[in-house]
Specification:
Blueprint (H helix, E strand, L loop, with lengths): L1 E5 L9 E5 L3 H22 L9 E2 L9 E5 L5 E3 L2 E2 L5 H11 L4 E6 L5 H13 L4 E4 L2 E2 L2
Parallel strand pairs: 3-9, 4-7, 7-8
Antiparallel strand pairs: 1-2, 4-5, 5-6
Helix pairs in contact: 2-3
Length: 140
């Protein structure tokens, strides 16, 4: 903050005080906070276990929905939270009710059995999902 003395207007010896706020440090703090927020928000997008998705020739991007992930060890994750197989129906129902988009995206490892995929998609439909999708990587 800068302080200075100016003439008081009546020809005196300058008794008036002027205070100016320097906003440069405040701007620096906001920029640093913005950068930290951008880095942490992009890191939060990748939730759940890492899986080796199957390849497909034609894929489309789905930006919203409930993500159900099945890893190589048959662990099931609903939106990044591990869910026991017995509680999958209740977990999916709660996630579908809480979401404004009634889409379930299944991310399954290449080694996941077809029976597990059918079971999860059936539970997603029973939980109230209007759409189901299977995640894949685009083939080169």
């Amino acid at each position: 903050m800068a302080l200075g003395r100016l003439p008081d207007g009546d020809g005196g010896d300058g008794e008036g005080i002027v205070a100016e706020i320097n906003i440069t440090p405040l701007t620096d703090i906001f920029l640093v906070l913005l950068i930290i927020f951008m880095i942490t928000s992009s890191a939060m997008v990748e939730s759940g276990p890492k899986v080796d998705l199957p390849e497909a020739g034609v894929t489309s991007s789905e930006t919203k929905g409930i993500v159900v992930t099945v890893d190589q060890q048959d662990g099931i994750f609903v939106n990044g939270t591990q869910t026991p197989r017995e509680q999958l129906a209740a977990g999916l129902r709660q996630a579908v009710e809480a979401s404004d988009v009634k889409r379930v995206v299944l991310q399954g490892d290449k080694g996941v059995q077809l029976g597990d995929v059918v079971y999860i998609l059936d539970e997603a439909r029973a939980a109230g999902a209007s759409e189901v999708a299977i995640a894949a990587t685009r083939r080169e």
